[in-house]
TrEMBL record:
Its main location: membrane. Pfam families: Glyco_transf_21. InterPro entries: Ceramide_glucosylTrfase (IPR025993), Nucleotide-diphossugar_trans (IPR029044). It comes from the Archaea. This is Glycosyltransferase. Keywords: Glycosyltransferase, Membrane, Transferase, Transmembrane, Transmembrane helix. The chain crosses the membrane at residues 236-257, 263-283. The keyword DNA-binding does not apply. It is a multi-pass membrane protein. It is found in: Membrane. Pathway: Sphingolipid metabolism; Lipid metabolism; sphingolipid metabolism. GO terms for cellular component: membrane.
Length: 307
């Protein structure tokens, strides 16, 4: 039996979580889990001791000119002992075969990413799930866009690791930047990710998602605006046939990705609201994420402020 390639799993987090436990239980004898925080968290230090050398705390420090997530990923990659990286998040369930399946994916496809399905935790976020399914699941799959919540690649896949890490510490989106440096295959395997929690949090997330797409794919944003405007106009001009068409179309998207949620029924109003939400996301001058306010002036020009 072939020996598994040693892997460094990088997990940005603000505290010990179920994800830490789930991933630690899947590590091979040569693997490591790097739990990356802004500062030392005593609760994490206490739990890490239970796992010996396989789980380590990496203190990234406060971000300067980038997002906390990007700063954590950069610190994790610099601290990693192995050449194979797995990036992940702590906001979804990691089943017992999660890491093993990513290993198989890399052996088959090279750099590989799974897919998110964003599940709303407040009324607005739940209503917007069809929009998330289109832009965060379907489009990500069709375009082979990496999702930083669950992906695998190796150092040699990067054209210039030093330049990548330097750029990572000057931007907001870790997976947006990675997309420009590594070619990924996105497999049709989903993970349910909770989003929102309050109307305010959902609006802040909408701004962040919108600006990530705009900064890394302005042409795609323009195409999205043109298509969305035409679709919304059709819904307003022909409400009854459009209601049936967009609802059934979204139901087929849900079925294709195994999404068992009633929220496809909100597709019609979401289609109409999509353009106002896009304008709102582009017009906002800042957004809040993880307890910090970000002003994203340009792709590599970010101001970080306390919330």
């Amino acid at each position: 039996m072939a020996t598994a390639t040693p892997t460094s799993v990088i997990l940005p987090t603000q505290g010990w979580s179920d994800a830490c436990e789930e991933i630690a239980a899947q590590l091979g004898s040569a693997d490591e889990l790097l739990v990356v925080c802004d500062d030392t968290v005593p609760a994490i230090v206490d739990r890490i001791d239970e796992f010996g050398d396989s789980v380590r705390l990496v203190v990234a420090g406060d971000p300067e000119g980038c997002s906390g997530k990007a700063n954590a990923i950069a610190a994790g990659m610099e601290a990693a002992e192995h050449d194979r990286f797995v990036w992940t998040d702590d906001d979804f369930h990691h089943p017992p075969d999660w890491l093993a399946r990513l290993r198989v994916d890399y052996d088959r496809h090279g750099p590989t990413s799974e897919l998110p399905v964003f599940v709303g935790q407040d009324p607005l976020a739940a209503a917007l799930e069809p929009l998330y399914a289109l832009s965060g699941t379907l489009a990500v799959f069709l375009a082979d866009i990496p999702w930083a919540g669950s992906l695998v690649f190796e150092r040699d896949d990067l054209d210039d690791e030093a330049a990548f890490l330097e750029a990572l510490r000057r931007t907001v989106s870790d997976d947006g930047l990675l997309m420009e440096h590594v070619d990924f295959t996105t497999v049709k395997r989903t993970r349910y990710v909770e989003t929102g929690g309050s109307i305010r949090k959902t609006l802040e997330t909408q701004v962040r998602f919108t600006q990530i797409v705009y900064r890394y794919d302005p042409t795609g944003t323009a195409a999205q605006a043109a298509f969305g405007t035409g679709l919304a106009a059709g819904c307003l001009l022909f409400p009854f046939p459009a209601l049936a068409l967009v609802t059934l179309s979204m139901a087929s998207v849900y079925a294709a990705f195994g999404i068992r949620r009633w929220t496809f029924l909100s597709t019609y109003p979401v289609v109409i609201a999509a353009i106002p939400l896009l304008v709102y996301g582009l017009a906002r001058r800042s957004f809040i994420w993880g307890g910090r306010r970000y002003r994203w002036h340009d792709k590599f020009d970010v101001t970080v402020e306390p919330e």
